[in-house]
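Box 4.2: Ligand-aware structure prediction
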Amino acid sequence: MTSPPPGPRAIKPLRPFVAAACGAGYLVAGEWLIRRLFSTYGPIVSIPLPGTPVVLIKDPDLVKQVFTEKPDILLGGKGVRPSALIYGTGSMFVQEEPEHLRRRKLLTPPLHGKALENYRPIIEDSTREALAGWPKNEPFTMMRAARDLALDVIVRVMFGVEDRTERTRLGRPFEELLDLGSSEQLILRVAMASVGGLKRWPKLDRANQGIDDLLTPMIAARRQDADLHERTDIMSLLLTARSEDGEYLTDKEIRDDLVTLVLAGHETTATTLAWMVDLVLHHPRVLAEVQAEADAVESTAYTQAVINETLRIRPPSPFTGRYTAGDYRLGGYTVPARTRIVPHIGEVNLNPETYDRPHEFRPERFLDSNPPTYAWIPFGGGIKRCLGASFSLLELAVALQTLLRCGSFEAVHDDQDKQVRRGIVLLPHRGVLVRYHS
Ligand code: HEM
């Protein structure tokens, strides 16, 4: 069979209108629309979006094929190209091979293995400091609090700065860019850019200028730092890192990669922490187990299972993408060249063939087994799998255990928050209102 995957179609003159309707439909109806498309057309669906058409997939076998495909057949950089609007065109995230792998190799050591142990005390300290400032016995939104906490952690880890006022100063310009990343304007702006309609976005230019004003002198000063080779922050590690051919990263590459790490690692981790608190507070048995483990200090096995289960049913990123260099066979269909294939993370993680009662929050399902590689994809997969996965799992475990050791939470609402799409992240609709007692 050589036909394209099924999906909404129209005769040629009407195609631009169908494309616009699909784009507008996602803006208004978000994830609901995607679920409808899957239930109407099956696990592989074509959507004629303006600019680049999209093929959505939700079947783990299809996901496996896509994530393990050769990178010159399914392009990773072009697959996530819309994010260049916020991350910058120099970001490693939007590069193709071999450049992507060269940059990825340089970023890997500071985010894996032994290096992670340097960050544990920082995460614990930031969490204690943050909760000392939270209102006691009064409602506040966990989403806001988690955002501030995650930004503080990432700024400390990236730049190795301890002074509180300096940390706040460093975080501010990133906050502006992060706000644009979860703004409702983003999808519209991406759609306009894809058809050549976005000439300027002044707010974005201002936010980027703010980051340049901050990072350019900082990189120059750090190069001269006598202790540069002893420092363990990520900026210093990048300044001293050399690729296999002996090349150092340029200032521009370091700037773009630092921005990528802060942006990729902040909202995602903060949202997961807020969801985790929401889910745990509405499941008293889980709360009791995770509290007991935090008090006992010896293990994180149950806490890790809670994190994995939270990322399964409340993944912060709804999807990722790969781009077809030529016509591509998938699931018995032919996906045309220059199409974006989009594994839909939320739907893959709810696959009923993999998970018994997939919509229920049951951390126990991950107590004795690791999550399945292609049916649990909150961090994507293949050679573009999230570089900060180990770091964020550590951050979430240390933050949750520290919070539970220092006090107790209470949910303000009897029911759980619902997922809403803001820009390209899925957030809790009320921001998870809680009271904290210490
Ligand atoms: C719960 C937290 C997080 C989630 C759910 C998440 C999710 C993702 C997803 C879905 C991707 C795309 C993967 C693909 O296309 O296959 C990604 C890529 C990436 N993430 Fe994360 N992320 C998280 C935390 C972090 C953190 C803390 C950092 C850094 C400190 C980070 C850095 C990156 C980078 C650099 C990439 C690009 C990898 C590449 O292109 O090779 N992420 N992440």
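In the box above, the bound molecule is protoporphyrin IX containing FE. The CA atoms of residues 323 and 340 lie 4 Å apart.
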